Amino acid sequence: MKFDTPATTNPIDRGRVIGIPHDRIDGPAKVTGTAPYAYERHDAAPNAAYGWIVGSAIAKGRIGAIDLRAAEAAPGVLGIVTHQNAGPLGKGNFNTAHLLGGPQVEHYEQAVALVIADTLENARDAARLVRIDYAPEQGRFDLAAERDKGIPPPPGFGGPADTKTGDFEAGFAKAAVKIDQSYTTPDQSHAMMEPHATTAAWNGDKLTLWTSNQMIAWSVGEMAKTLKIPPENIRLVSPYIGGGFGAKLWVRADALLAALGSRMIGRPVKVAIARPQIPNNTVHRPATIQRIRIGADKQGVIDAIAHEVWSGDLPGGGAETAAQQTRLLYRGPNRLTTHRLSTLDLPEGNAMRAPGEAVGLLALEVAMDELAEACGVDPVELRIRNDVQYDPEAGPQRPFSSRKLIECLREGAARFGWNRRNPKSGQVRDGRWLVGMGVASAFRNNLVGKSGARIGVDAKGHVIVETDMTDIGTGSYTIIAQTAAEMMGVPLEAVTVRLGDSRFPVSAGSGGQWGANSSTAGVYAAAMALRAKLAEKAGFPADKALFEDGLIRLGNQSQSLATLAGREGLWAEDSMEFGDLDKRYAQATFGAHFCEVGVDIDTAEVRVRRMGGAFAAGRILNPKSARSQVIGAMTMGVGAALMEELSVDTRFGFFVNHDMAEYLVPVHADIPHQDVLFIDELDDKSSPMKAKGVGELGICGAGAAVANAIYNATGVRLRDYPLTIDKILAAQTGQRVA
C-alpha cells in the first residue's frame, strides 16, 4: 500500500481500541520471568556453551603475538576464537570498527578473542590467562585538542553537514541583542538493563541467532556481510529486548563471536558482553562542543541564528548532528548550521536515544533562556514569539504537517504554575534550598519508513499478526495488537502478536522514533488487504463493509470472521510504503518541558522537585505506554543534565567509569512526580494512523529545563554538562574547575 496523499477518514478513526490506555499485553510474561530473552534460550538451544570476550588492553596499535596455551589448558575450555582462526571476515556497513579485532586494534576493549567453556565461570577465568603482546601506537583521544581538525561529515540521517539561509553574519552584526556562547556535552553511555547478548547455533550451513537487537532485517544483512554467507542462511530472533536506546540497532561483538564460537565447537554458544565492557566495546553518544549565536531585536524576535557543532569518532564514523533541531525550531531569516567531525581513537560513537536533538537542545534551549534574559522577556513568551509554522530554511512553501508548539508551551505553563515563577534569579528560598523554575522546548523529527506485516484470522475468529518489528520496552506488542483489533473489529484479547523474527515480513524496526508509527501503518496495510479478502468471500464491497464484534456487516447482513476464515484460516500480507509527503511538509514532534529544582545553599546539591511536560505527537496510540515512554525519557534528561558522563582517560584512550558503580544514572530517589500532558493532535500527512513517534521526544529539552531552573534558583549559568556540584560551587566562588 502506498501512502502518498493525506489520510482521510479510515477505520482507525473509530477509536474503540486505538487511543485507549491499555496495559501491555507482554507484561505478564515479563513479570513472571517467562518471556525468553536472548541469553536464556535454553528451550531453543539446549546444552549451550559459554563465551567470554577478551577485550584489547590498548586503544590503538597492533597485536604482535597471542599465547593461548595456558587458557586452552584451563578447566572446561572448549575453544578460543581469535583473528588467527576465525576465517575470512568482512565488515557490515553499520559497524565503524571491526567486531573482532586483530592484528590491527582500533579502540580500547575491542574484542580480540572469545574463550568458550562449559560454564560461564570457567570461560571467565580462562579469559584471564590469554596473553597478548601489543605494539601500541599514538592515538587521538581529546575532542578539544582535535576540534580544529574537524571536517564536514558526509550526509546522513541528520541531513547535510551544513545549511545556510540568508546572510547570518550581516544579520547578527546589526542585531540589537546578541548571544554568543559555547556549550559542551560529554560522552554518554547506554545503560539498558539487558546487556548485549546472543545465543548462536548452526544447523549445517544455516545459522540461528537469538539475540537482543532492534533492527532485524538490517542485522541479518550485516551479519551476512561479516560472515560472508548468504543472508537467507541466517535467521535472527529477537522477540524480547531489555532496552536498547540505539545501542542495539546493529549487531555487535556478542552476535559475531557467538556465531564463530558455535561454528568452532559444533554446539550452541551464548555470549553476553559483560557490563564493564559495554561502554568501551559497543557504542556511545559522542561528546560535543557547540557554539550558538543568536541575534534578535529588543523584543526577542530572532533575525539571525547560528549553531556550530564539533564531535569526534573513529575513522569512517559519523558526527553527532546536534544542530538539526536548530534548522527547524525557531524563526529567523538569516541562518547557519555546521557540523564538523574530528578523528578520535575512542570507542565507536553512534546513535543513542534522540541522537542530535538530545544534546543539541541542551545547548540551544539554554541559549534561548540567555536571550530571554538579555531582552527582559519571559522565557515562555520568547519561545512563542519565535514560533514559525513552516520550515524556516525552506520558506512558506514547506509548511509543517502539524505544529502545536505554542499550545504545548501555554498549556504546559498553566498546568505547571509557571506564573508563580520569580523572573529574578536567586530570590526564592525554602529553608536551606534555593528554588527555581526552568522551561525548554522539545523537538524531535518525525521519521517514517517502509514497514510490512502479515495478518490472519483462524477458524475461531482469532487474529494473528506477524512482523519482524521489535519491542525494546516501548509497547510495540500492545499498539500492534490495538491496531489489528481496531481494523478487524475484534477485542484486544482476540489478537496474538508475534514479533522479532526474520522469517516474518520486514518492518521499519525500532529506532529513530519511527517504530510505532511505521509498524502500525504496516499492520494497517496488511489488515486492509485481509479485509478485502474477507469482504470478497462474504460477497460484500470492501469499501462499504463494517468490521465489528467479530463480524463483517453490510446493512442487515453479517457473517463471522471465523466462518469466512474456514478451517485453514485466511491470511494477507502487505507493506506500507511512504511517498514524498515528508518532502512537501516538514514533519516533527513538539513539546515543552518545565522543571523546578532546589539547590542547597551550602553544598550546591541539586534536587529536582517536580517536572511537567506537554507534548504534541499526533494521535497517541496508547496513552498509558506513551506516558511511560515520556517519563522514562524525561528521567534520562535529568541524568544528562546532572550526572551522566563517560570520563575519558586522554592518555590511554578509554572510558574510565565503565560500570554502573561509577557511571551515574538517576535512581528512584532522584526523580519526583512527572506530569505528562498530550495535546490533542491528528497528523493526516504522517501516516494512515495520523500518529507520530513519541519515544525520543521526551528526552529532547528535558536537561535544558533543569539547567535553566538551576540558573533561576542560583544565578549560576553553567554551559558544560553535566551540571555537577563542583561546577556550581566553582561558579559561585569564581573559581575554575579543572
From TrEMBL:
One Pfam family matching this protein: MoCoBD_2
Domain Aldehyde oxidase/xanthine dehydrogenase a/b hammerhead: 32-138
InterPro entries xrefs: Ald_Oxase/Xan_DH_a/b (IPR000674), Ald_Oxase/Xan_DH_a/b_sf (IPR036856), Ald_Oxase/xanthine_DH-like (IPR016208), AldOxase/xan_DH_MoCoBD1 (IPR008274), AldOxase/xan_DH_MoCoBD2 (IPR046867), AldOxase/xan_DH_Mopterin-bd_sf (IPR037165), PaoC-like (IPR049648)
The organism's place on the tree of life at top rank: Bacteria
SUPFAM superfamilies documented for this protein: CO dehydrogenase molybdoprotein N-domain-like (SSF54665), Molybdenum cofactor-binding domain (SSF56003)
E.C. number(s) listed in UniProt: 1.17.1.4
Coiled-coil regions listed in the entry: none
GO molecular function, one term: xanthine dehydrogenase activity
SMART domains: Ald_Xan_dh_C
Keywords for the protein's UniProt record, in alphabetical order: Oxidoreductase
Protein name, UniProt field: Xanthine dehydrogenase
Organism of origin: Sphingobium chlorophenolicum L-1
Lineage of origin: Bacteria, Pseudomonadati, Pseudomonadota, Alphaproteobacteria, Sphingomonadales
